[in-house]
Fold:
Amino acid sequence: MLKKLMVAALLATTAAVPRAAVDKEDIVVTAKKGRVATAVFAKERFMSSPRLSPDGKRVALMMTANGVDNLGWYDLDDPNAKPVFFAKAQEFREAGDRTVGGWQWVGNNTIVFTLASREIIGGGRADITRLVAYDVRTQKLTPIAWDDTGSYANIEYTNHDEEWVLIQRNTLKDLSFGGAEVIRFDFRTGKVSMVQRPNVEVSNWFIDGKGVVRAGAGGDGDSGKQRLMYRSNAGETLKTVQNMADATFTGAQIYPSIFLDEPDMAIATSNKDGFRKVYKINMKTMEIVGPPLFQLKGYDVDGVIANDSDNAVAGYAFTTTKDGRRWVDPKLAEIQAALNQTFGAGNALITSTDIGDNRVIAFVGAPHQAGSYYMFDTVTGKIRQLGHLNAILREAEMNPTETIRYKASDGMEIPAVVTWPRHRPHRKNLPIVVLPHGGPFGVRDTESFYTEASWHQALAELGYVVVKPNYRGSGGYGRDFVKEGRKPNGYGKRMQDDKNDVVTWFAAQGWVDPKRACIMGWSYGGYAAARGAQRDPDVWRCAIAGAGVYDMAMMNRWDANNLSTFGSKFQDTSDDPNGISSAQNTDGRWAPILIVAGLRDARIPIEQSRTLVSRLKSSGKKEGVDFKYIEQPKGTHNLPYEDVHIEWLTETEAWLRRFNPAYIATDPDKEPEVVITAELK
Structure:
């Protein structure tokens, strides 16, 4: 939860940190003179998600050293302090594919982080999330209610003064998962007590700003109906107030975001009018009260940010072409205005504050800059850079990025994020790489340096125009736009046409050469790349597919066995699963395709890639000529290791150079020399 910021310090901050005070280092000048090596863009983030302790004296964060992610903390008031690392993310990954997730403070001396893994429970795969506490005084790691925690455990309420939390979790008993419960864990005593016993109809509890369980939600895995139960106070019995299915997976249900002090009133989001807006809602009747409190023309609202007491709105989170905040709290609004004045509108986001309202952490970046975290002392007005996201690029200005809207062949307007190669300002007849996002439904690309791990920047630096289309089915543009992708002829057909139409439309503008186009993607993007290579070899000179689904029927069967009956239908939208499966259609001409898969991928089984490769061979395709297959032993669905990530991007570069080189003899310009490498510190 973000804390309020002091107005008195705001003006001092603005005056003390003029725009010119942000140092530009020599590496920025150097970067303008030449090209940055591809591997630089695959480097692990040097710093991520710094979180201030309640008193603002310490910060917890993830830092990378020699390609290894380390969770640690340090003292902000000690000028000689060095980070104290207590959890190496990679070591957790090696011990059963575990992943260090988010972290937060409980009081000023305890850091709690999540540890996620995929395990075999009762003969089936299950995602498990548990909690681990670290004491900065004793440097001791302690699992929290570990043994009987089921598939998840999340902190839902924190009392910093008394150092206790409310944890929502389900339980694991006799190799099966129980219902959701809420327990209280006291960090001073280690005592666990029951707050809300499990309810077979509830998988998620909602807690108000006073620590009272007010509502519970759960669903039927077969019918897809989602039930919401509510009570005005702890002494009442829960009563059903909503029970409905969302067959189109467009978020039709309404759930409370903030319980107001006003009896039975809450803040919630709803897309009843086609776009997600923020409303005040009567929880007993589920009726919307009054007009929208916040809305965006043409976009969905992302969510609501609560105040310190969790009983009122402090602000709204939204995304248009990039992430933004609209602050209702006047003090937060003023500090945001000061940040905008200092760093430029839209370039700074408040990410953490202390409870004393004295210190603020803000992320400052731009679509063409990796960005950095800064700490503002709102009492003294001083600003301090905590660290860069990319320790090599730092503040270097890379390839410009913008959002355009192009016309698909059926006339629909499609938003797309375009990254232009900075060394090729003429923007005429350039090679193009189309980079569709994963998902596919409900996800979208924005103007961000780190969207898809900055692959767009790496490719643009090579000399390509990179387009990330938010094809129909993508999220953020309203309910109807998502539904367009979920039509029977959407997946693998009309959605695929949207990618082809990028090339046609951009060529019509004169920006790209339609004969110099490749398609690349991961997860669903990998599916789209393989489908493009199979269906449209006349459009694509090559394809790069990572962690994709290539046999839809096989994947639908896997989902049916590992997800709920209703949940398994999320991707099962086509009326022609074999027809849209690249692995079922390997005969005939294909565009040359690079296939990359992680052996430890828990979402897309390795059999998907192995099946595609086997059938390509059976159809007479030659490995090393028509296709190349790379199986990464340490690879998961999220490219968790730096060396794995570097391999993905460098193999991509090699494949592009082979089949669609960015610079050819007839081009009016030449490829710039590499001046920045991954070894530069």
Remarks:
- The domain at 7-388 is CATH 2.130.10.120 (Methylamine Dehydrogenase; Chain H).
